[in-house]
Design a protein that fits this description.
29% strand; Glutaconate Coenzyme A-transferase; alpha/beta
């Protein structure tokens, strides 16, 4: 694990990268990492996230600044700019049911070949997908999804890179940290090893590549 400043981000995250971004409607999203992506104009991104937040918050700011070429999310209903760009053909949007999205990410993180879910059976979600019948129930086979980078937000890290999250930030951040090739965590503070109790460690430091402390430019 290495600590970095914002100015070092452009040397790590490349234009055109696939990026998982944690958070839920902007809560638990790494805002300073997003700030730097915007300032450095790192675009052409494929963003995998729960949602695109709002035009002035979280991932929505990347959309407004036209840095996202493709979004794989559970909904875009809170961001009219994402909707406009999708209708105009300026951004590709793949909508995935929220639970299915979370489980596809988890499957990648724990090494599963896919998941079976009844969600979407008999709808447009089923089109082009393999189906499997177990007993009398028909399921869709949904494949794992990962990314080159996971850009996540944690409350605290210790000097070994172990992460602890706060409240809603636990929804997607820990899953995404397991499913990416490179994990960059934005944290509010770094504390001595042992300051975070074992039951509060949600992401082990062994899978965290970089730590960015908020306010460290």
């Amino acid at each position: 694990m290495k600590t970095i400043t914002r100015k070092e981000l452009p040397e790590i995250v490349r234009p055109g990268s696939s990026t998982m971004i944690g958070g839920f409607l902007g809560c638990g999203t790494p805002d300073e990492i997003i700030d730097e992506l915007i300032v450095s104009r790192i675009g052409g991104l494929t963003v995998i996230a729960n949602d695109t937040a709002f035009p002035d918050r979280g991932i929505g700011r990347l959309v407004v600044n036209r840095l996202v070429s493709r979004a794989i999310v559970s909904h875009i209903g809170t961001n009219p700019e994402t909707q406009r760009q999708m209708i105009e053909g300026e951004i590709e949007v793949e909508l995935v049911p929220q639970g299915t999205l979370a489980e596809r990410v988890r499957a990648r993180g724990v090494g599963l070949g896919g998941i079976l879910t009844p969600t979407g059976v008999g709808t447009v979600v089923e089109e082009g997908k393999e189906t499997i019948v177990v007993g009398e129930q028909k399921y869709l086979l949904e494949l794992p999804i990962g990314a080159e980078f996971a850009l996540i937000k944690a409350k605290r890290a210790d000097y070994c890179g172990n992460l602890s999250y706060s409240l809603t930030a636990r929804n997607f951040n820990p899953l995404m940290a397991m499913a990416a090739e490179c994990v960059i965590a934005e944290v509010e503070e770094i504390v001595p090893v042992g300051s975070i109790s074992p039951e509060e460690i949600n992401t082990p430091g062994v899978i965290v590549d970089y730590i960015l402390v908020r306010g460290c430019r």
